[in-house]
Design brief:
With about 525 residues, the chain is an alpha+beta fold. The protein is built from 16 helices and 13 strands. The radius of gyration is 41 Å and the shape is elongated. About 20% of the residues have low confidence. It is found in: Cell membrane. Belongs to the ABC-4 integral membrane protein family. GO terms for molecular function: transmembrane transporter activity.
Length: about 525
């Protein structure tokens, strides 16, 4: 019987304690595996996504949020900035390249990025198939988007509003794939690129150089419905105002006429049109030809009608003026929105720009400037405390696993000392007994290490499924060569834990044990 068979028989005899040692080792290795692969992937992504970008300019808010949303696409934007201000900033001699981006839609979790051709230069992007867009609603997709969604050049898709996959789908604006990018090992692999006009047109935002005639019919129909609803609402509002004004006016007029002479002159009626004068003349003539009571009543009715018209007309004019003002403000807002983008990605032309451009943006404009290098370091400092704590916890668990191996082997040695003495009497050397115990500790921790790697990759796969498609950068099914170092560390702990029991087996006294038995 060889050493492996003997070790396996010993493990089965102490299955409970051995299983505990294996599980403890597996948990420690799994935690270390998750921490190592996640931090390594995150560091690579931070480097690949910001290697040519020195500054990000966006709406005021959290600088870290601006970096996460504009570079790594794992957070919501801080807002929009005026495209005119961004263009003005781009003319600064310290800036070599400035690329605007506009967010707002997604396709099954993959974010749609409205941008310009210069975006390709920032990330050194190359086309694997097709060509770059030439007009609105033509898209170039990343390598992972094509792989996961089965899209190819010529296919069409509809985007959903917002940054989550369950948003409202824009069925009236289909996008057509015109190009597929080579894999760049950056966040662009999970993005969909198009021009800025596409993002604006999807949301019906006005902008300059709008030449997409294919969608004019839909927009016109929408405007017609909107105008119809607006006119209907305006008519109802005017009727309600007139009704509200008429009632108190009529009451006040009756009381005023009853207390005044019939032939009192109304100064408020001066300056009215000929129709009003003709109406007053007719009422006066009728009053003179009729009885005094009838004349008084007719005069009161005429004056009431005239005063109502005098009060209702200004109210209607004011209402119309307010509606015109609101409409003009709304048109201005829509026009301004058509000239807005989410952020501006900047590459410096000189290292001296580091101390000039951020201060210029933060102090002289309504925008904010965020440095990817500074915010990435800050992000790692925030995550570092948690990662260090988890790493320490994992090593503690592995040390506990080593202690469990030591206790298991030490107690098993007491139960197997008679078997060891028989082996010695049959010709087994002290070295063989020593190697058997060491091999048992090694196999226990080796099994724990292998199971730990499997658990770690399963956990990474589940974590990857919970993240957005734009943040899908963890390769859960790929084995890294450095992971085997974790298994080697676990095995070393097992060998070290088996040293004392192995030394004790080496010093086994045949005569003493057999005499006691």
């Amino acid at each position: 019987m060889n050493n492996l068979q003997l070790v396996w028989r010993n493990i089965r005899q102490q299955f409970g304690s051995t299983l505990l040692s294996i599980l403890l080792t597996a948990f420690g290795v799994a935690i270390l595996c998750v921490i190592y692969i996640t931090s390594d992937s995150l560091e690579k992504q931070l480097t690949n996504n910001s290697k040519n970008i020195d500054l990000v300019v966006g709406a005021k808010g959290s600088p870290l949020q601006l970096i996460l949303s504009s570079l790594y696409h794992i957070d919501n934007p801080t807002g929009n900035i005026a495209l005119s201000e961004a263009r003005k900033l781009a003319t600064n001699p310290f800036i070599e390249l400035a690329v605007p981006i506009s967010l707002g839609d997604n396709f099954k979790g993959h974010r749609l990025i409205g941008t310009e051709i210069s975006y390709f230069q920032l990330y050194d992007l190359k086309l694997a198939q097709g060509m770059v867009w030439k007009k609105a609603f033509e898209a170039v997709i990343g390598a992972d988007v094509a792989r996961k969604r089965g899209l190819k050049v010529g296919d069409s898709f509809h985007t959903a509003h917002g940054l989550s996959a369950d948003g409202h789908v824009h069925d009236e604006h289909p996008f057509r794939v015109v190009g597929v990018l080579n894999k760049s090992n950056s966040v662009v692999d999970n993005l969909i690129l198009c021009n800025l006009e596409s993002v604006w047109d999807v949301h019906g935002i006005a902008h300059e150089d709008h030449n997409h005639d294919d969608h004019d019919h839909d927009h016109d129909g929408h405007d017609h419905d909107h105008d119809h609803d607006h006119a209907h609402t305006e008519t109802n509002v005017k009727q309600e105002v007139a009704a509200a004004v008429t009632t108190p006016v009529a009451q006040d007029s009756n009381q005023a006429v009853a207390n005044k002479p019939v032939n009192a002159h109304n100064h408020d009626s001066e300056g009215h049109d000929d129709h009003d004068h003709a109406h007053d003349s007719t009422a006066t003539t009728t009053a003179e030809e009729s009885s005094p009571g009838a004349a008084r009543q007719a005069m009161m009715e005429a004056r009431n009608a005239q005063q109502q018209e005098n009060l209702i007309a200004p109210a209607q004019e004011a209402q119309a003026a307010d509606e015109t003002l609101v409409k003009n403000i709304g048109d201005d807002m829509i026009e301004d929105r058509g000239e807005e983008v989410t952020a501006l990605l900047i590459k410096y032309s000189s290292p001296a720009a580091i101390g000039v451009i951020p201060r210029l943006v933060n102090q002289s404009t309504d925008m904010q400037a965020a440095s990817p290098a500074i915010e990435s370091t800050r992000l790692f400092s925030l995550l570092g405390v948690g990662l260090d704590s988890l790493t320490a916890l994992a090593f503690i668990i592995m040390l506990i696993a080593g202690l469990s191996v030591f206790i298991s082997l030490y107690n098993a040695l007491k139960d197997r000392k008679y078997d060891l003495a028989i082996m010695r009497s049959l010709g087994a050397s002290k070295g063989k007994l020593f190697s058997l115990v060491i091999l048992e500790g090694f196999i226990i921790t080796l099994l724990g290490g292998i199971i730990g790697l499997l658990l770690g990759h399963i956990a990474l796969y589940l974590i990857n499924q919970q993240t957005s498609e734009s943040a899908d950068f963890i390769e859960a099914l790929v084995i890294n060569e450095k992971e085997f170092l974790l298994v080697a560390v676990a095995c070393a702990i097992g060998i070290f834990a088996a040293l004392i029991p192995a030394i004790k087996a080496y010093k086994t006294s045949i005569s003493t044990i057999l005499a006691d038995k």
